[in-house]
Amino acid sequence: MNILMICLGNICRSPLAEGIMKTKVPADFLVDSAGTISLHEGEHPDKRAIKTAANHGIDISSQRSRPINRRDFEIFDKIYCMDIDVFEDVISKAKNEAERQKVSLFLEVLGDHKNSEVPDPYWGSMEDFEKVFQLLEKGCNEISNQILK
User: Domains of the chain: which residue ranges?
Assistant: First the structure.
């Protein structure tokens, strides 16, 4: 199983989701993250994301931001988007229905379609990063429960 987590810049939400998901699945699963923009390409995750993950025993410090590309639709079985704008951008890049079927909003896995967006903590505080971590943890737990059945 290959899983891709996507947010806008690939420095806050999706790196956290990648790091968390890697702790929930077997080592032979490919888990990666990307962004819909290339503004931060090559950069490490936001220092607050790195610190939040480290507070939970997860090291995301070696990750590097990258934009989503065409090959991702071929490699990944599941593509999870952190918010509706990201979802719509990713869907627009899919070339057929099979690729579109791989894409979903990350929090939809929890069954709460009214609150299906992971808020972007970039302009917030460490507390905002922790809240996002907790949401991502819940979602990753449910994803791993579903795929490891």
Answer: 2-148
Annotated catalytic residue 13: yes
| Residue 12 is among the residues annotated as catalytic for this protein | no
* Overall fold of domain 2-148: Rossmann fold (3.40.50)
Q: Taking the complete model, does pTM exceed 0.85, yes or no?
A: yes
Give the tens place of pLDDT for each residue, 3-45. Answer: 999 999 999 999 999 999 999 999 999 999 999 999 999 999 9
Residues in a beta bridge with 78: 3
**Between β-strands 78-81 and 2-7, what pairing exists: parallel, antiparallel or unpaired?**
parallel
Question: Which residue in the list 32, 81, 120, 140 is annotated as catalytic?
Answer: 120
